[in-house]
Amino acid sequence: MSPLRRYFRNLWDGLYTVLVGMKVTWKNSLLKPITVQYPRERMEIPEGSRNQLYCNIDDCTGCLACERACPVACIWITTSRRPAEEEVYTSTGVRLKLAVPKFDIDMSLCCYCNLCTEVCPTECLVMTADHEFAVYDRGDLIYRFDRPWQVQKGILPPALPDYRPKPKAEQPKTEPAPAAG
Amino acid sequence: MPEALTPHPPARALEPRPTQVAFEGDEMVLNMGPQHPSTHGVLRIVLRTDGEVVKEAIPHLGYLHRCFEKHAENLTYGQVIPFTDRMDYLASMNQNFSFVVAVERLMEIQPSEREEYIRVIMAELNRIASHLVSFGTYGLDIGAVTPFLYAFRERERVLDIFEAASGARLLYNYMRIGGVMRDLSPQLLDQTRAFVDYFEPKIDEYNQLLSFNRIFIERTAKVGVLSAEQAIDFGVTGPNLRGSGVRFDLRRDDPYSIYDRFEFDIPVGEGLQGQVGDCWDRYYVRIQEMRESVKILRQALAQIPDGELARRPKSIKPPKGELYSRTESPRGELGFYVISDGSTNPFRVKARSPCFTAMSVFGELARGAMIADIIAIIGSLDIVLGEIDR
Amino acid sequence: MDRIVPAARDLIAWLAEQLWSGFGVLLKMPDELFALLVMVVVGSLMLVFLSLLPLFFVWLERKLSARIQSRLGPMEVGGFHGWLQTVADTVKLLLKEDLIPAGADARLFKLAPMLAVMASLAAFVVLPFSDWLIVADLNVGLLYFIGVGSIGVVGILMAGWSSNNKYSLLGAMRSAAQIISYEIPVILSLMPAVMLAGTLSTQGIVQAQSGIKWFVIANPFMPLAFLIFFIASLAELNRTPFDIPEAESELVAGFHTEYSGLRWSFFFMAEYANMFVSAAIATTVFLGGWHGPFAAGPLWFLLKCFLLVVLMMWLRWTLPRLRVDQLMSLCWKYLVPASLVCLFGAGTWYLVVNRLRGGAAGTFWFGS
Questions:
Q1: pLDDT tens-digit map of C247-283
Q2: Helix axes A3-29 and C31-68, enclosed angle (nearest 10)
Q3: Chain C interface, mutation test: which of A9, A13, A29, A31, most C Cβ atoms within 10 Å?
Q4: Of B164, B181, B213, which has the smallest distance from its Cβ to A17's Cβ?
Q5: CB contact under 8 A, A28 and C71
Q6: For B145, phi and psi rounded to 5 degrees?
Q7: Number of structural domains, chain A?
Q8: Do B213 and A18 meet the contact criterion of CB atoms below 8 Å apart?
Q9: Which residues lie below 8 Å from residue C49, measured CB to CB, with a gap of 6+?
């Protein structure tokens, strides 16, 4: 292309592509904004989302599988033998041989990888949908799941709600998140 | 150290690198420090410029080094996977995929059909998400703010799909050795189909808004030209290599998983707007790859069989041996060299990072460019410091 | 001004009658003193208007950019769509530490933002908001506007130099080169309208247009002149696609890197006030000023200015930015020849049409 032709071509291109770009931004300005004004409105967290960890200590058999599975070593458990005459069972009927006086998870170290929940044989360790647990002191992020302490502090009611995921057959079909527009 | 493995050569003292440069004329030494809006992470570049023209550009890396390879020696194979997530955090599924394929090749196990399809769907969705980030941030570097917002608007939908599938939005830890973490529900597959239909026309919009905009073309065409020979010499792979005209894609030329079942083209740079191998070519290859990923997704979603997920091995103990396995991540050839000594922990994991080799060619490209072009060149190489520094 | 002083006198007389006879003492002042008082009041009103204008425009820019980008923009401060957001930001800026860098030239450092603001505010005196609402109807109005606009460059250079910072200096040099180069297309593209109107006075140029017979359609060359003026004034304002001097992704923030707090907000204010001034000049010269198909007046003027400002903002959020050398080549290789073509073309057209009508002075090719 001769330089003169290229000159006018550049000129035309410059103007035309700018107008085309403006058409695209115009069309997009007519779409509904997608901002969700947190905290007034909240987005729906899908089921199975990995946020805060929760352990139902009554079902913990003290197998230490989660402690071993954690890649960043943020779960600290100590177990002690229950006396033989004590007959404590989990909610599924397994007899507990070990007591778990200390079950701490440091959420500031946790990488939310979910490996601990996968290996738990009784599914007492689950990931809940609670993601709003910011604290002022880093030490408050060490969650101590042994119940007496939490019940004593009034954090948990004496009778625990059951956070374990329900078996597949009973799960109601949930609405998929709106996918188009 | 197990005798059966090849001994490593003794470490050599590194020669001191010349850092004092002689000044001539009015040379200026500019430091684009680790904190800079355009360096895509913590990258420090020392520029020696003569006015506006750069005579030498020296990148300094290591600001994001987190000892991934050392950590891997103390973790089990399953525990290494969340660490691979964090290398290239924008293409997490592909990082998982690469490592998992490496270990599976070492152990000679295969996941079930459905899991293979799920893996491909996740990997291609993440390819789209990663290329969207690259497209958006490149526009931002060149000065157009709006494409960035559009890219992230589309990416939100992909992240919603990932959140429903794996539970997390950015660092998924979704693939496991021998399979995947969870199955995908039919609603989620429908959501993915809806996303694919929604997204394909958007690529044309991006082309109209940014790719063929005269100002953008003026900024990126004929800038940072990487010839095919140079690219191969430096070991550049992925869209950077394909932007120079070399039609090499690991999904076609060294297929892994089930990629040989899908029909898709390999886009290469053809010098449409300037020279073959310039910044515009590399950028446009990524845009076209998004379209190809959409094609693959459509085929995978149509072909995915119903079925059960395979029973994963209880404990991962690959036999003694070593293996280099590579896959195509959105940034290039991501390779894992795994040395196993028969225990549950790998003896050594080396990650071959595609961005690291792309960064190695940056010094060549930057010579003779103007300061504003340095930004364009870095953006077109699409680097993620997490992967460079590991 | 010669219409405002008697109007003010009538207003005070009316107030003295209706409200409080104490106002009558103002009427007994000597004429010069009264005129001075009116000037001070008008000047203050102008300053208030000009300070509120950037506040409104900043809010508008944020809302507009949010709309284009599928977001919401400011929503909280002040309740209704965050209309007090800029006020909150200004208060925050006022409370910041007044930093003057160690090696900086303190006097120049403090003077620079004031010069930048002065340049943009001083151009307001020649803007004809309506038939009588003009602060000073200079008969060299356009020349005054161009001259005063150039003072901004001095402010920018001062800012870059006195910051004692490589990046600021680089940004200031680029900015100065850009602004000075683009003044030529600005001036040349305004000249055809001066030819058609026969006067440099802004009020005169508006009065040479009427109703819907605006200068932009007077001549086939005038739309081109309008386009050139618009593009060149974008470059004058350092707006994208010509905002290399403030390119965040490259040299931090160019010439105003070292400024913080109120000093920085002066530069910001100067930019938005300048935007309004450029839009206003484009409106007076090309779009008929305060004329409208019906009920001509300040509302039409403000509406047209507003539309041009919105167009400038729209372009900012659509386009990437040009590199310095491309910017320069655009100016000297494309805009300057094109504006010369406009000038000669418009003049020739006027002459030919004039000759064809046998000497009847018609500025518009489709009738007087």
A1: 644 555 567 777 878 888 888 888 899 999 999 999 9
A2: 90
A3: A29
A4: B213
A5: no
A6: -80, -35
A7: 2
A8: yes
A9: none
Tell me what the pLDDT averaged over chain C comes to: 84
Task: Extract the residue ranges of chain C whose pLDDT is less than 50.
Answer: 248-249, 367-368
pLDDT band of B17, cuts 50, 70, 90: very low
Chain C positions in Cβ-Cβ contact with residue B141 (cut-off 8 Å): 249
Domains of chain B: 68-353+371-389 (1.10.645.10)
**Residues A23, A70 within the same domain:** no
Q: Are residues A83 and A135 in the same domain?
A: yes
C65 and chain B: CB distance < 8 Å anywhere?
yes
Q: Are residues A67 and A153 in the same domain?
A: yes
pLDDT the model gives residue B35:
74
| pLDDT at residue A169 in the model | 56
Q: State the Cα–Cα distance between residues A50 and B30, nearest whole angstrom.
A: 44
The three-state DSSP-derived secondary structure of chain C is CCCHHHHHHHHHHHHHHHCCHHHHHHHCCCHHHHHHHHHHHHHHHHHHHHHHHHHHHHHHHHHHHHHHCCCCCCCCCCCCCCCCHHHHHHHHHHCCCCCCCCCCCHHHHHHHHHHHHHHHHHHHHHCCCCCCCCCCCCCCHHHHHHHHHCHHHHHHHHHHHHCCCHHHHHHHHHHHHHHHHHHHHHHHHHHHHHHHHCCCCHHHHHHCCECCECHHHCCCCHHHHHHHHHHHHHHHCCCCCCCHHHCHHHHCCHHHCCCCHHHHHHHHHHHHHHHHHHHHHHHHHHCCCCCCCCCCCHHHHHHHHHHHHHHHHHHHCCCCCCCHHHHHHHHHHHHHHHHHHHHHHHHHHHHHHHHHCCCCCCCCCCCC
Of the candidates A7, A10, A31, the beta carbon closest to that of C70 is on: A31
State yes or no: pLDDT of A158 exceeds 70: no
- Mutation choice for B interface testing from A16, A24, A72 by most B CBs within 10 A: A24
Q: What residues make up the domain containing A11? A: 1-28
- Backbone φ and ψ for B60, nearest 5 degrees, come out as -115, 120
Q: C62, C68, C330: which to substitute to probe chain A, counting the most A Cβ within 10 Å?
A: C68
The residue type of A100 is V
Chain B: give the shortest CA distance to residue A116, in Å. Answer: 10
Identify any residues that bridge with B175 across adjacent strands, giving them in sequence order.
B180
| Model confidence, pTM | 0.87
Residue A40 has pLDDT above 50, yes or no: yes
Same domain, yes or no, for A85 and A155? Answer: yes
Question: pLDDT grade, residue B38 (50/70/90)?
Answer: low
CB contact under 8 A, B145 and C326: no
| Contact state of A118 with B181 under an 8 Å Cβ cutoff | yes
Q: Which residues pair with B337 in a beta bridge?
A: B324, B350
Instruction: Tell me which amino acid residue B30 is.
Output: L
**Could you tell me if A165 lies within 8 Å of chain B, comparing CB atoms?**
no
* Residue of A25, A31, A37 lying closest to C317 (CB–CB): A25
Residues of chain C in contact with residue B143, where contact means CB-CB under 8 angstroms, are 240-241, 243, 247, 249, 319-321
Burial of residue C81 (number of CB atoms within 10 Å: 0-12, 13-18, 19+): middle
Task: Assign residue A133 the CATH number of its domain.
Answer: 3.30.70.3270
